[in-house]
Amino acid sequence: MKKIKISPSILSADFSQLGNEIKRLEEGGADMIHVDVMDGHFVPNLTIGPPVIKSLRKHTDLIFDVHLMISPVHKYIKDFAESGANIITIHPEATENLKDSINLIKSLNKKVGISLNPNTKIDIVEDFLSEIDLVLVMSVYPGFGGQKFIPEVLEKIKKLKTIKEKNNLNFDIEVDGGINFENCKQVIDAGANILVSGTTIFKSNNGNIKKNIYDLKIN
Fold first, then answer.
1. In which element (H, E) is residue 34 found?
2. Chain centre to alpha carbon of residue 198
3. 139 and 174 Cβ atoms separated by less than 8 Å
4. 121: which residues sit within 8 A by CB, 6+ positions away?
5. Domain 5-218 superfamily per CATH
6. Helix (H, G, I), strand (E, B), or coil: what is residue 23?
7. What is the tens place of the pLDDT at every residue in 67-83?
8. Residue 190: left if φ>0, alpha if ψ -120 to 50, beta else—which one?
9. pLDDT band of 44, cuts 50, 70, 90
10. How far is C-alpha 170 from the chain's CA centre?
């Protein structure tokens, strides 16, 4: 049985209590913390920047899984690396040169993630899969939390798993968007090994984070 990791999205947390919320996630069994960074330009919403991530870093030793939904992304990568990100995930559409951005993240000793929107083809990143650590498959269009899972992305997850196994590659397959107790098994069976979830983890079962993380892992 493969190891499933849960990366709760703090987009659904109480932003006035982010330090405490991260502690709750850590105590509840989270494997990492998913930080959604939005610029109001690449996606239609604004969230947080490097100073907030830096201030949160002292609250936990968990991996900060930072998803940059900003454009142009390249010039901000160093700031997020220095703020305490462990994994930096970018969108191919948000950089002029994907290879250069991958190399920059690696030069800063951070893990590299590439995110694929529901309408982004795998072809755009296939040549880079041997160089990166993670592919983040978006199962909603990025910009807002609480959206409904798009089931058509299951085929993309399966294709990534096939490419990974055929070429003996080591990247993680992470899925973000509308993940809940009803669809998590499908996502895992398709090939994902990291699940991002916000609303389900923070709101289900009267906010019982430990139970919600556990149930997502074993479903």
1. strand 32-38
2. 11
3. no
4. none
5. Aldolase class I (3.20.20.70)
6. helix
7. 999 999 999 999 999 99
8. alpha
9. confident
10. 17
Catalytic residues, by residue number, are 36, 176
For the chain, give me the number of helices (H) and strands (E)? 9, 8
Q: What is the pTM of this model?
A: 0.96
| HEC string for 53-82 | HHHHHCCCCCEEEEEEECCCCHHHHHHHHH
Tell me the pLDDT band of 1, cut-offs 50, 70 and 90.
very low
| Edge-to-edge strand ranges of the sheet holding 172-176 | 5-8, 194-197, 172-176, 134-138, 111-116, 87-90, 63-69, 32-38
Lowest mean pLDDT among 6-15, 61-70, 142-151, 181-190: 142-151
Task: List the beta strands (DSSP E) in the chain.
Answer: 5-8, 32-38, 63-69, 87-90, 111-116, 134-138, 172-176, 194-197
Nearest of 124, 161, 157, 119 to residue 140 by alpha carbon? 119
**What does the pLDDT look like over 7-28, one tens digit per residue?**
999 999 999 999 999 999 999 9
